[in-house]
Design goal:
With 370 residues, the chain is an alpha/beta fold. It folds into 2 domains: 194 residues, Rossmann fold (3-Layer(aba) Sandwich), CATH 3.40.50.2000; 165 residues, Rossmann fold (3-Layer(aba) Sandwich). The protein is 41% helix and 16% strand. The chain contains 18 helices and 12 strands. The strands form 2 sheets. The protein has a 6-stranded parallel sheet, sandwiched between helices. Strands 9-8-7-10-11-12 form a 6-stranded parallel sheet, with helices on both faces. The relative contact order is 0.12. The N terminus is likely disordered.
């Protein structure tokens, strides 16, 4: 960094930031929690170097039900360790989750060091992979790892109050709640076409498509009286017996167009600690395209969805059926709720609103670092 600190140079000075992301562009958490802010930060004069831990090949194999060879993963850890050897050249380390998954903090902490401040970002309750692990020795060895990472960080960014509560209990010095956002310019205000078919839509990945089983019975019941289709974006094949399903792989270039074919976007979840840590990002995408939403009242969903205004919260099959029927029967209701959702996204869940807050938090963590 040189002899003159960021604080001495003034708040307008550009920082040198090393982004240590978990995934490449195919990883949704990395794409939305960090990569979409890079252009803004660079335009503000910051020099950002990106180090990816797990490549897009890892994501492709993961979604295909295969594993990347252990050698490739070990090599990625080695590359990261070598990159961290030059951490003294940076003003800030920006870490997604942790530096090395499944490595104890007493080892990881050596790579983090103390002289260079680091900020960690969370959009999932990844600490539960350790503290709720089925193997006792994993709980013993890693159960408090993420709490230790948070406590030693110059700042912790969390996507929702559940994650913020964990950071507070861990003793984090600074906590900033920044929701997972979208670039509203990429999602058009586009009212759905009335083509005589009611399309219920879901966007996700092969690892989360199992949640749709929670609404199977509700959608199946509607097929008796409604021309209904379940549109699933994120897998190339999906079947729900008794339900007409259209499935397609996710593509960043066509995602918004796919959502615009929905009449309503859904987010069913089970009620468990992992789900309480989710950030409701698919709801934000639906609302950005002016679509009403229906969601399980789990975690941040209860904050994003204003029941009866921009969508509905539904727990039981009966509540799901009631919400689906109300929206399928009333195009005016769909339009009003969709407009309310889009307005909410523009106010609170857009990159345009959150990017300046992210930059300000980075500056604070660097300027106040001892």
């Amino acid at each position: 960094m040189g002899e003159i600190s960021i604080a001495q140079r003034g708040s307008g000075f550009g920082m040198k930031i090393l982004l240590l992301s978990r995934y490449g562009q195919l990883g949704a958490s990395s794409r939305y929690r960090s990569y979409q802010y890079l252009e803004y930060l660079r335009d503000r004069g910051h020099d950002i170097t990106v180090n990816v831990l797990l490549s897009d090949e890892y994501i492709r194999k993961l979604y295909a039900g295969r594993r990347l060879p252990a050698f490739n993963i070990i090599l990625s850890y080695v590359r990261r360790a070598l990159r961290l050897a030059s951490k003294k050249d940076y003003d800030l380390l920006w870490i997604e989750y942790e530096l090395f998954p499944w490595i104890p903090q007493r080892i990881e902490g050596w790579f983090q060091g103390r002289q260079i401040p680091y900020v960690v970002d969370y959009d999932d309750a990844i600490f539960h992979r350790y503290d709720f692990h089925r193997l006792p020795f994993v709980q013993l060895l890693l159960g408090t790892k993420i709490a230790d990472v948070m406590r030693q960080a110059a700042g912790v960014i969390v996507g929702n109050p559940y994650l913020g509560g964990y950071a507070t209990r861990a003793g984090a010095k600074r906590i900033e709640k920044l929701p997972t956002t979208i670039d509203v310019a990429r999602y058009p205000r586009k009212p759905p076409k009335d083509n005589g078919r009611f399309t219920v839509g879901w966007v996700g990945s092969p690892s989360t498509v199992h949640y749709l089983a929670l609404v199977h019975e509700a959608i199946r019941k509607l097929t008796r009286t409604t021309n209904i289709t379940l549109k699933v974006v994120g897998v190339d094949h999906y079947v729900l017996p008794g339900v007409q399903v259209e499935a397609s792989k996710w593509n960043d270039d066509t995602e918004a167009d796919e959502i615009c074919q929905f009449d309503v976007g859904i987010m069913p979840l089970t009620d468990s600690p992992w789900e309480r840590g989710k950030c409701g990002h698919k709801l934000i995408k639906y609302m950005a395209c002016s679509r009403p939403v229906i969601a399980s009242p789990i975690g941040v969903n209860k904050i994003i969805v204003n029941h009866g205004r921009n969508g509905f919260l539904a727990s039981t099959t009966e509540e799901w059926v009631e919400a689906l029927v109300a929206l399928s029967n009333d195009s005016g209701l769909r339009e009003r709720m969709g407009t309310a959702g889009r307005d909410l996204v523009e106010r609170e869940y857009s990159t345009q609103v959150i990017a300046p807050r992210l930059e300000a938090f980075f500056r604070k963590c660097v300027e106040e670092h001892p």
